[in-house]
Inverse folding.
């Protein structure tokens, strides 16, 4: 059997090499869930990725990260405005 402190030592060495020292595997798990949610993954997709037995478990932990209707509207407007600015940087698009 592997002792717990031996696994911790292996993790710390690997984390330093990967540039994620100071983070635990659990921290990276939360980060991965946050990225999935930010990129529009559904509750069921995040549940499956994390291996939660139920979507309730996923929602109990991460519900605050899913955007509400105002967040979705704000993102849509920001994306639309960014597209206008990128489309023609050399001319005034709006007058």
């Amino acid at each position: 059997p592997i002792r717990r402190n031996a696994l911790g030592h292996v993790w710390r060495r690997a984390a330093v090499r990967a540039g994620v020292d100071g983070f635990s595997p659990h921290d990276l798990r939360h980060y991965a869930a946050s990225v999935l949610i930010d990129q529009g993954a559904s509750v069921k997709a995040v549940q499956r990725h994390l291996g939660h037995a139920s979507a309730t478990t996923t929602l109990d932990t991460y519900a605050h990260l899913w955007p509400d209707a105002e967040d979705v509207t704000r993102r849509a407007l920001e994306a639309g405005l960014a597209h206008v600015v990128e489309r023609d940087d050399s001319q005034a698009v709006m007058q």
About this structure: The helical segments are 4-18, 25-38, 43-50, 55-62, 69-87. The first helix runs from residue 4 to 18.
